[in-house]
């Protein structure tokens, strides 16, 4: 297992993912009168919190992402929400620390809510547990997150599930789609958000076809293309695909992807939010 998210933490793709996860969490909390407390399942949790100066120099990805987020002049509300979270972790100013999905989520939980993140890599899992120590209702767990999330979803009501694989393995697309389908079968009121890179169009289209073939409905696709998708060797953009997307998700995703492309993209960049399935 080679993937180290610390090299990528705080890049544009993290900003898109984390701003939308924060919105989904707050939206679900607003419906807890009808649905009960919020349970978040994170199939690929990572280390939880990243010290961007860890390797001596902040990565170019973080420079082009969160560093620009924090100095941007005009931030729309959902981008501002993420910036406020980053600022809270850096009380001395600057951007040394960046939250992964576990810490970002844990900080937003109410006492009755819960978070469970799965991590396969033992040293990373140890960091995850350490990062989550201040929050008793947020736990890190060793093991395969695809299987773990499906098992855990069976005992929960309307969980919010984040699927965020490294896409190092060729079966990550298939397993993400199968996991989303299995979670929705276990609980049709679940909401599943899947992060994917955008390199070339065929890979992504194949993934969306797979979700459609699984019969998943209310699928919202939020794309932030920083540049044209003509180089399959490069992450030219990213997408968050939300299955069983709540109302309001379209506008939220448009705000987040629109800002990301306009503030961080090239002239050929484009934000697109559309419905599949
Ligand atoms: C993209 S990072 C996760 C980032 C995190 N979700 C965030 O937003 O901060 C992917 C992580 O998944 C872990 N991983 C890879 N395969 C896994 C699997 N099958 N189950 C659980 N974790 C896995 C890797 O070790 C890596 O730490």
From TrEMBL:
GO terms for molecular function: 23S rRNA (adenine(2030)-N(6))-methyltransferase activity. One of its GO terms (biological process) is rRNA base methylation. SUPFAM superfamilies: S-adenosyl-L-methionine-dependent methyltransferases. It comes from the Bacteria. One of its GO terms (cellular component) is cytosol. Pfam families: RsmJ (PF04378). PANTHER family: RIBOSOMAL RNA LARGE SUBUNIT METHYLTRANSFERASE J. This is Protein involved in catabolism of external DNA. It comes from Brevundimonas diminuta 3F5N.
């Amino acid at each position: 297992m080679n993937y180290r998210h610390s090299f990528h933490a705080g890049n544009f793709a993290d900003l898109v993912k984390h701003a939308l996860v924060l919105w989904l969490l707050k939206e679900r909390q607003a419906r807890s009168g009808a649905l009960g407390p919020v349970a978040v399942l994170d199939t690929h949790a990572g280390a939880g919190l990243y010290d961007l100066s860890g390797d001596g120099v902040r990565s170019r990805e973080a420079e082009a992402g969160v560093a620009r987020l924090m100095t941007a002049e005009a931030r729309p509300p959902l981008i501002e929400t993420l910036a406020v979270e980053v600022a809270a972790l850096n009380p001395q100013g600057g951007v040394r620390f960046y939250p992964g999905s576990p810490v970002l989520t844990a900080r937003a939980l109410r006492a009755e809510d819960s978070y469970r993140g799965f991590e396969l890599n033992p040293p990373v899992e140890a960091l995850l547990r350490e990062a989550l120590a201040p929050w008793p209702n947020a736990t890190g767990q060793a093991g395969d997150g695809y299987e773990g999330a499906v098992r855990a979803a069976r005992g929960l009501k309307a969980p919010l599930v984040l699927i965020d694989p490294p896409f190092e393995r060729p079966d990550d697309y298939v397993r993400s789609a199968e996991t989303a389908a299995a979670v929705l079968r276990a609980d049709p009121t679940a909401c599943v958000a899947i992060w994917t890179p955008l390199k070339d169009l065929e890979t992504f289209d194949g993934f969306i076809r797979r979700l459609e073939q699984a019969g998943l409905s209310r699928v919202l696709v939020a794309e932030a293309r920083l540049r044209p998708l003509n180089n399959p060797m490069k992450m030219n953009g990213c997408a968050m695909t939300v299955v069983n997307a709540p109302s309001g998700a379209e506008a939220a995703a448009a705000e987040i992807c629109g800002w990301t492309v306009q503030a961080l993209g090239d002239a050929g960049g484009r934000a697109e939010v559309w419905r599949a399935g």
